[in-house]
Amino acid sequence: MLTLYSFPTPNGRKASILLEELGLPYTVHRVDLAAGENKRPDFLAVSPITKIPALAEELPGGRVRRLFGSGAILLHFAERTGRLLPEDEDERAEAMSWFMLGISDLGPTAIDMQRFAARSPDRIPHAIDLYKGELMRCYAALEERLGAAEHLAGASYSIADIACFPFIAAAAVAGGGLLERFPNLKRWHDTVAARPAVQRGMSVPDLAASG
Ligand SMILES: N[C@@H](CCC(=O)N[C@@H](CS)C(=O)NCC(=O)O)C(=O)O
């Protein structure tokens, strides 16, 4: 049995989209970040960095395997199921590259941008400009790629798309006309957003999830 520790944020949603796409049964444990539940010792045992998403898998014999971080969760299950990662070596190389862009560039940059633009007690124009510029580099790279390929890996939908989608979806509803400025990104966003598994994964955890 899989238990997903999550909260309604883009990183959390990457994990729930993946589990929905793969059709793996799981229960959701809602970790209320606003209430500091991520600092509790029981959560620390699953996620030593005190961040969601994290996953606990109960194995035969009662042993529990943990995974923390959206990147580890996506890669682990793609490898284990042999799905959502193309077999063709060229497409797999593209998938890995865009997957890593989502995990190590787009996500952290969007979070830091939010920290400095909306949550910092002091307005630091240099930090805001820096993260805005870095985000634009991500958007421009995605726009160019999606002008040449249907999905980030190429023809097939993969964990690269899942690694990027929730942050693009969040930016799309934040105002600023992201999708109007980047038509290829819009085409891809709309296609991914229409997938039933993505729609289910984006609504996890709902308010009814255990906490
Ligand atoms: N590298 C991690 C980052 C996860 C992350 O930043 N999670 C945020 C929510 S989106 C979090 O738990 N923040 C709590 C905190 O910083 O205290 C991943 O890719 O999943």
UniProtKB/TrEMBL annotation:
InterPro entries: Glutathione-S-Trfase_C-like, Glutathione-S-Trfase_C_sf, Glutathione_S-Trfase, Glutathione_S-Trfase_N, GST_C, Thioredoxin-like_sf
Record's keyword terms, sorted: Transferase
Record-annotated GST N-terminal domain positions: 1-85
Start and end residues of each GST C-terminal domain: 88-211
CDD domains: GST_N_Ure2p_like (cd03048)
Sample GO molecular function, one term: transferase activity
KW Transferase (keyword) present: yes
Keyword RNA-binding found: no
Family label: Belongs to the GST superfamily.
Protein name: Glutathione S-transferase
